[in-house]
Amino acid sequence: MNAQYEIYDDPFKMLILLATFVAEQQGSKLDYENVATFENDKFSLANGRFLYKKDQVEITWYQFLGRDIQCNKDLTRQEYNRMFVDCMASVYGVN
């Protein structure tokens, strides 16, 4: 079984922002109970799971975004920020 680490408040807010961007790109609003499914070369978002492909960082939650949220790696705030900025840029095609 993989270790699970607590996720800080700021990265959680960035995950919400990323999920909001994805929903907006799909013409909808963020639904915490049914987060929009999305996948590109940087990350995937589906079924209570976010995966950052580059570093295999996996963030999971139970039933709705924010409940029992955990990460498979113990990252610093700077590492979280770098990861989410990379993902957000990829949603809009910015390299």
Shape: globular
> What is the total domain count?
1
Number of strand elements? 6
What's the order of the H and E elements?
EHEEEEEH
Oligomeric category: single chain
The biggest sheet, with number of strands, parallel, antiparallel or mixed sense and barrel status, is:
6 strands, antiparallel
* Strand residues, percent: 15-25%
Identify low-pLDDT runs: none
How would you sum up this structure, described in words?
The protein has one domain. 34% of the residues lie in helices and 19% in strands. Strand 4 and strand 5 form a beta hairpin. The model has no long low-confidence stretch (mean pLDDT 89).
Features:
about 100 residues; about 35% helix; alpha+beta; 6 strands; single chain; 2 helices
Topology:
Elements: E1 5-6, H1 9-25, E2 38-39, E3 43-46, E4 49-52, E5 57-60, E6 70-71, H2 77-91
Antiparallel strand pairs: 1-6, 2-3, 3-4, 4-5, 5-6
Helix pairs in contact: 1-2
In brief:
This protein is α+β, with helices and mostly antiparallel strands and 95 residues long.
